[in-house]
Amino acid sequence: MAEKTRFLSSVLGNEQVPAHLARSVIEERLRSAIVDGRLPPGTALRQQELAGLFGVSRMPVREALRQLEAQSLLKVVMHKGAVVAPLIDEDAVDTYGLRVLLETEALRQSIPHLDASDIALARSYIQQLENETRHAEIGRLNRLFHMTLYSKAHNHKLLRMIEIELNEEERFLRFHLSSMGLGKLTQDDHIALVDAASDKLVDQAIDVLERHLNTASRTIRNYLNSQAAR
């Protein structure tokens, strides 16, 4: 038990968290550690241990774990409680299939209303992604890039659904980068996407987005098939 506590402390820190910020701070620290791989798949996260580590009650810890479970970063296992979910599984393929449906529609709605400031903001995220190697930050910037291009869609419920899927996708980034032998994302598709959006070429932008998402989906499917064949 002491060894497990020392491990969590080394990964998450052990400074006391203000009560009114406890849920959000604990959620973000756990999320970052899971996405970056510092908390590997299968790691058990017990409420009492985390509450003691951060000097809070179990309630904000429980809420933080619930949020992470909703993002598919954690799963509940009998006799172990909340554990870090596998980096990649069948849900990942479904996630990309759903993203194609949702995001192409959002892009179709949004592009006619994007202005120069939206395009400039999207390009700024590309520039930041070019220089970033931290997985959690790559995931955040990738999400902000995509949401900027979809931001002028008139269906706000659609945008909320997309943001949920993009939050979930962050856990796949380490898999993609390692499987392709990369330290960071290549930006060719992002550049082509924002160029088409800037020129109001809706169909061309949708083609780029579909290719971008389907390539990721095929990478995951090939990996899962290779694992099943072992």
TrEMBL record:
Listed GO MF terms: DNA binding; DNA-binding transcription factor activity
Record domain HTH gntR-type: where: 20-87
Domain of life of the organism encoding this protein: Bacteria
InterPro entries (alphabetical): GntR_C (IPR011711), TF_FadR/GntR_C (IPR008920), Tscrpt_reg_HTH_GntR (IPR000524), WH-like_DNA-bd_sf (IPR036388), WH_DNA-bd_sf (IPR036390)
Keywords, in A-Z order: DNA-binding, Transcription, Transcription regulation
Gene3D superfamilies tied to this protein: GntR ligand-binding domain-like, Winged helix-like DNA-binding domain superfamily/Winged helix DNA-binding domain
Entries under PROSITE patterns matching the protein: HTH_GNTR
Protein name (record): GntR family transcriptional regulator
Organism per entry: Pseudomonas putida (Arthrobacter siderocapsulatus)
Source taxonomy: Bacteria, Pseudomonadati, Pseudomonadota, Gammaproteobacteria, Pseudomonadales
